[in-house]
Structures are given as structure tokens and as C-alpha cells.
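Weekly sync, protein design subgroup
Attendees: M.S., D.O., the rotation student, P.L. (late)

Item 1: inverse folding check
M.S. brought a backbone from last month's batch and wanted to see whether the design step gives back something sensible before we order anything. D.O. pointed out we never logged the input encoding, so this time it goes straight into the notes. C-alpha cells as presented (234 positions):
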């Protein structure tokens, strides 16, 4: 489904819910909700933390085993099957896990036979398998490859920044969660000024920067939507 059809679908969904909403979104309220549930994270609390990122094929990792340099690697590439090769324990599944989950897996396997109380840290250096789409009122719309943790501000910067017609108060992030398409709306101006959190974007997110020429009804419907339900089914 292309961006125009997505926006039309969103318009119908938001109009259906707008009646129960309230207008007048405050900068402090424009933060990310990471779940389907109707709540927003408090200002000052990070939105969509990096732990939401799941390792994919061809990602580049850093693996550190405290005080064991022989088992530590500044660059360790995930292969096309989603595995990494570790000394002593051999093939380890990495794809589909968060950094913490992979750290726990390596800790368990190393601790079971080889080390006493190992301390393992895994960091994603390069998220080569993750792409985002940036569209709307930006200088260079397109599909971009993420390199590790990427925020909304950084994603828009990949597209050479907002165009002159951009409405920075209405930047939509479309995301699929548990097979269902959802949307959150952010005020990029407030983020720039430090009045709102800069949310982390995830692979396959679609970011649409609004413009003064975009469907006015859509923009009005989004503005009328309740602040506490930033992610919506549609």
C-alpha cells in the first residue's frame, strides 16, 4: 500500500475516533507510546528505547566479555542465517533477539561450561538489515538504511531535512506492531527545542512529514485525536 492510501486509511480511522478526543496538543505531551495500550510516556522518559531493536541478518555487533579479550570482538558480523560464531560455544542464534537477550544467551552458554559468572555485553554497531522510509515534505524522500540506534530527528536528517513547506508540528510515524498498522504523531519543532523527547524509530517504520498542502481534513483529524492514544490501529 503506498503512502497516499495509508494516509487515506488513517484519515477514516482517526475521524472515527476523533469524537472522543480533545484538541490542543501540548509540546510536553508529544512523546511516543511504544505499546498499543492508550498511554503516553512521561516527559523525560525515553521513548521506544534501543532495546526494542531486534538484531537482523548481516548486522554488525560488538561483543565484550569482561576481562576475557579472547572472547571479545569489536566487530562481529551476523551471517545470512542469523547466527554468529563464538569461540568455545560455536554457532549462536542472534537474529530476532535484542542486545540484552543475546547477552543473556551468551552469558548462559559461557557460564554453563567455560567461565564463572561471565559478564557479557552486546552492542549493535551497524543495523545493516534495517530500513526506514521517509516521505512527505522533506528534501529527499526515499528509503534509508539505519546504522544502529536512530531517532526521528536523525531519520528526517537522512532525507536532507524538512522542506520549506513542512509542518513540523505534524510528523507521523507509521509502524506495524503484532501485525497491525499503527501511527503516532510528533512535533518535530518541539523535539528540536528540547520540549519533547526524540523517539527512536525502528526498522520498517514509515515517516511522513506533513505539509501545508496536504489534506487539511487529515491534519485536523490528527490534531483532534486524544493525546494519550498516539499509536492507533487503522
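Designed sequence read out in the meeting:
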Amino acid at each position: 500500500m503506498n503512502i497516499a492510501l495509508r494516509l487515506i486509511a488513517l484519515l477514516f480511522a482517526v475521524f472515527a475516533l476523533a469524537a472522543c478526543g480533545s484538541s490542543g496538543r501540548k509540546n510536553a505531551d508529544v512523546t511516543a507510546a511504544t505499546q498499543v495500550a492508550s498511554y503516553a510516556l512521561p516527559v523525560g522518559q525515553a521513548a521506544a528505547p534501543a532495546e526494542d531493536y531486534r538484531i537482523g541478518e548481516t548486522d554488525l555487533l560488538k561483543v565484550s566479555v569482561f576481562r576475557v579479550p579472547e572472547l571479545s570482538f569489536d566487530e562481529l558480523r551476523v551471517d545470512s542465517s542469523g547466527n554468529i560464531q563464538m569461540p568455545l560455544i560455536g554457532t549462536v542464534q542472534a537474529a530476532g533477539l535484542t542486545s540484552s537477550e543475546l547477552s543473556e544467551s551468551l552469558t548462559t552458554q559461557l557460564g554453563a561450561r567455560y567461565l564463572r559468572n561471565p559478564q557479557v555485553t552486546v552492542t549493535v554497531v551497524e543495523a545493516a538489515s534495517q530500513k526506514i522510509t521517509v516521505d512527505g515534505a522533506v528534501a529527499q524522500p526515499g528509503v534509508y538504511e539505519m546504522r544502529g540506534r536512530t531517532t526521528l530527528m536523525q531519520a528526517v536528517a537522512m532525507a536532507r531535512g524538512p522542506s520549506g513547506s513542512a509542518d513540523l508540528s505534524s510528523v507521523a510515524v507509521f509502524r506495524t506492531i503484532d501485525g497491525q498498522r499503527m501511527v503516532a504523531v510528533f512535533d518535530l519543532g518541539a523535539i528540536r527545542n528540547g520540549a519533547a523527547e526524540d523517539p527512536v524509530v525502528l526498522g520498517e517504520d514509515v515517516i511522513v512529514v506533513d505539509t501545508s498542502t496536504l489534506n487539511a481534513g487529515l491534519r485536523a483529524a490528527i490534531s483532534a485525536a486524544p493525546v494519550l492514544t498516539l499509536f492507533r490501529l487503522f
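Discussion: Residues 3-18 form the longest helix (16 residues). The mean pLDDT is 76.
Action: P.L. to compare against the previous round before Friday.
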